[in-house]
Specification:
Two copies of one chain form a homodimer. With 231 residues, chain A is mainly α. In chain A, 69% of the residues lie in helices and 3% in strands. Chain A has two domains: 64 residues, Arc Repressor Mutant, subunit A; 141 residues, Four Helix Bundle (Hemerythrin (Met), subunit A). The first copy, chain A, contains ten helices and two strands; from the N terminus they run αααββααααααα. A two-stranded antiparallel sheet of chain A has the order 1-2. Chain A is elongated, with a radius of gyration of 20 Å. In chain A, 37% of the residues are buried. The N terminus and C terminus of chain A are likely disordered. Chains A and B meet through α3, α4 and α8 of A and α3, α4 and α8 of B. Chain B binds a DNA duplex (21 and 21 nucleotides) through α3.
Chain lengths: 231, 231
DNA sequence: GATGATTTGTACGTATGTATA
DNA sequence: ATATACATACGTACAAATCAT
C-alpha cells in the first residue's frame, strides 16, 4: 500500500529487518507489553505480505519479546511480577559471574580501559547528568561482559538485558542514585583491578540487585496506576 | 492434499510438534551438527507444506539448535571448540548460581527430597550402573534447578543444557567417574543442607567444570577422527 | 564465465478455529 | 446458544538467488 520502508535493501532478508525494527520498538517501549501484533497491520506497515510477518513474529516470540498463543494471535510479551523478579535476579547472577571471570581474566589493557572509563564518569555524577551517565553505565557494564572472555555468557547477559530493557526506564531518576551507583561501581572496579574474583562477584551482585529493586518498584507502581496504553 | 499425519490433533499446532521432534533429533544426535535441514525433504517427511517447515526452522535457529544462512539454507548448529568451551563454562556458572540460591531457599521438604535421592544413588555407584546413574544425575540437577525458585534462571539452565546435550554423550563411561561424581554431589548436598550458599556454589562449579572438561575432551577427540557422517 | 537445475524467499488463497453479537 | 465476522494456520504459486555443470 505505501512501501514506506524498505530503505536500504542491502544485507539480510526482509524478515531480519523487520525483526530488528520490531525488537527495537519493543525494547524501547514504543510497543508496550500487551500490545497486539496484528499480522495484517504489520504487513502493510512494512509493505510486505503476511508470510514474512509471520516469520518475524515467530522469531520474536522465540526471543521472549513477544508471546504467541496458538490460534489467538501474538502480543508484545506480558511479564508477570514474579517473572520480572526472577529475571532481575538472574541478571544479577549473570553479571556477577561475568565480573568474577573478568577479575580473573581481563588483560592489563582491559583493566586500564575499565578504570579510565569509570574515573571519567565522576564528572557526570558531579554534574547530575542523568542521560550521559546512563550511556556511560551501558558502556561500563559492557566492558565487564567483554572482560569475562566468554561469548556464550555474554550472549546470555545481552539477551536478558534486552528483555528487561522495557522495564528499566526509571533508572537514574531517583534522588541520589547517581552517586550511589558510581560508588557501587567503584567497589567493582577495585575488586577487578585487584584480580579478586569473589569480591567482584559479590559487589556486582549487590549493585545489580539494588538497581533491579528500583526498577521493579517503579514497574509495579506504574502497573497499578495505568493498566494499558496504546501509542 | 493428503493430510497423512495430524495423528492426535490435540495440543499445539503442527509447527510446535515439528519443533519438538526436530529438537529432540538434534539433541539426541540423530541429526548431527552440520546436517543439512532441507525444507522440501522435511516437508514431506512430516506430510506438510514448506510453510510450517520454514517456521519450525526459524524457531530452531532462534533456539540455537540450527543455523540459518540467508538464501543458503539451514543446517544443524555447528559449534566451534571455543564456543563449546564457553557454553560449558556458562553452564557451570548457571548451575553454581542455582545451587547458591537453592541452599538459601529450598524448603525443608525439598532438602529432604534432594538428600533422599542422593543417598539412594549410592547403590547405583556400587553396582556401576551407568545408565541408571545417568538418569539419576538428571533428576539430581533438576531438583537443584527447581530449588532455586527462579523460573528465569531455570529456563536459562534448561536451554543451555539442551544446547549442550548433543555434546554430552560420553558422560559416565570414564573409569571411576561414577564414584567421583557421587562424591562431588555429596559435597553439594552437604552444603545445601547446611544452607551454606557460597559453599554450594563453589562445589557445584567445580563439579560441573569437571564434567564439562571430560565432555569437551571427548568431543574434540571424536572431531579429529570422524569429520562428517550422514544417517 | 554463462546456463540450467535446485532451493530459498515472498505473495496470495483457502479453510479452520476463535471471538463477538 | 447460534450465527456471523474475523484472524490465524496451512497450502500452493511465482520470483529470486545459489549451486553445479
Amino acid at each position: 500500500m505505501m512501501q514506506q520502508k524498505r530503505a536500504l535493501l542491502r544485507a539480510g532478508t526482509t524478515v531480519d529487518e523487520m525483526i530488528r525494527t520490531l525488537a527495537d520498538d519493543i525494547v524501547n517501549g514504543i510497543l508496550p507489553p500487551g500490545e497486539k501484533l496484528d499480522e495484517l497491520g504489520l504487513a502493510d506497515r512494512f509493505g510486505v505480505s503476511r508470510t514474512p510477518v509471520r516469520e518475524a513474529l515467530g522469531q520474536l516470540s522465540a526471543m521472549g519479546l513477544a508471546e504467541r498463543r496458538p490460534n489467538r494471535g501474538c502480543v508484545v510479551a506480558i511479564i508477570t511480577d514474579q517473572r520480572l523478579t526472577d529475571m532481575f535476579e538472574a541478571m544479577a547472577e549473570l553479571e556477577s559471574a561475568c565480573a568474577r571471570l573478568a577479575a580473573l581474566r581481563m588483560s592489563a589493557g582491559e583493566r586500564r580501559a575499565l578504570d579510565a572509563l569509570h574515573q571519567s564518569a565522576a564528572t557526570l555524577v558531579h554534574d547530575g547528568a542523568q542521560d550521559a551517565y546512563s550511556s556511560f553505565n551501558l558502556q561500563f557494564h559492557g566492558l565487564i561482559y567483554e572482560g569475562c572472555h566468554s561469548s556464550y555468557l555474554r550472549d546470555l547477559v545481552s539477551t536478558t538485558r534486552s528483555r528487561l530493557a522495557p522495564f528499566r526506564r526509571a533508572q537514574f531518576r531517583m534522588l541520589g542514585r547517581l552517586r550511589k551507583s558510581w560508588e557501587e561501581h567503584d567497589a567493582i572496579v577495585t575488586a577487578i583491578l585487584r584480580g579478586d574474583g569473589e569480591a567482584a562477584a559479590i559487589a556486582t551482585r549487590a549493585h545489580v540487585i539494588t538497581v533491579s529493586a528500583a526498577s521493579a518498584a517503579f514497574v509495579s507502581d506504574t502497573r497499578t496506576s495505568l493498566p494499558q496504553e496504546t501509542p
